[in-house]
Amino acid sequence: MSQVDGMRLTVLVDDFKNQLQSELAAKHGLSFFIELKAGGHTTNLLMDTGPSADIVMQNAQKLGIELRKVDSIVLSHGHYDHTGGLLGILKHIGRKVPVIAHPGALEPKFVMKKKRLKKAGIPFQASELKKSGGILILKRGQTSIMPGVLVSGEIKRTSQLERVKGFKTTKGGKLVDDHMIDDQALFVTVRSKGSVIITGCAHAGLINTIKQAQKATGSKRVHAVIGGFHLANASAKRIGATVGELQRAGVKAIMPCHCTGEKAIAKFIEVFGEKCRQLRTGDVVSL
Ligand SMILES: [Zn+2]
Ligand SMILES: [Zn+2]
Question: Which of 37, 158, 178, 228 could make an S-S bridge to 258, C-beta 3.0–4.6 Å?
Fold first, then answer.
């Protein structure tokens, strides 16, 4: 069975921080440093790079994390709050590092805010990333990083409730709705625990992402879900359906952060009690 012996995830940046972590900086965005242990060896993954490199690098230093040890970088999707730090972090690492993303992550991205169009995409060209040491691995399908660790690739959209709204892209010079097909998650199978799903914003929908993980790992049970679940503007019906899916999957730990939204987090705490723990900048999860 493909699995890792353990994993340790550190939140390098999130929208919020704990009062105890006053020396750290919080900002809208997300970056996880993930240490994967297998056969006495540790592989270090960086999932997303926050809105800017300086904030991620300063927090990492204060948390005692050596970013130069990053073996690969995974981009959950192309939004700036997950990719803005990429160029600076690659320069800091100073050697060639694989950067795994869906090809759609590099497409132009916009968001409608107060009826105005705002740029929301990755703020660099592919050529700049390559020059800074990034080996771009652009794949629509799933990618195996090591036994027990999968990057989902494109997530099948089946849930009627999980419609992507408010994002735009361009096609043939025209502004069109962006369905965020580049959105992907990380699936880690941990020994004696089970599947762990790590999302960036879960633009594809958490229900859809759980179903994809179940198919990809061959296991119906999910041990933990960690990440931004993008439910801030979700209806009570959608939040309820998400709760139902988490229950069906037997999830033991729900760790929302970033764009999940207060309403959904309150519901998770109401239903799951101590199984739900909101993650903030500087928090560490060991599984
Ligand atoms: Zn996003
Ligand atoms: Zn985001």
Answer: 228
Name the band, by pLDDT with cuts 50, 70 and 90, for residue 153.
very high
Asked if pLDDT for residue 1 goes beyond 80, the answer is: no
Ordered by where they begin, the domains of the chain are 6-286 (3.60.15.10)
Pinpoint the alpha helices (H) of the chain. Answer: 53-62, 80-83, 86-93, 126-131, 206-217, 236-248, 262-272
CA of 6 to the centre of ligand 1 (A): 28
* Å from CA of 234 to ligand 1 middle: 15
Ligand whose nearest atom lies closest to the CA of 111 = 1
Q: How far is the CA of 228 from the centre of ligand 2 (A)?
A: 7
* pTM across the whole model: 0.97
Q: How far is the CA of 219 from the centre of ligand 2 (A)?
A: 28
The tokens 């130069």 sit on which residue?
Answer: 68
216: closest CA among 135, 151, 283?
Answer: 151
Q: What is the pLDDT of residues 272-287, one digit of tens each?
A: 999 999 999 999 999 9
With tokens 């009062």, the residue in question is 19
Mean pLDDT of 164-187: 95
Query: From ligand 1's centre to the CA of 190, what distance in Å?
Result: 27
Q: Are 282 and 6 in contact (CB under 8 A)?
A: no
Binning pLDDT at 50, 70 and 90, where does residue 18 land?
confident
CA of 201 to the centre of ligand 1 (A): 5
| CA 174 / ligand 1 centre spacing (Å) | 21
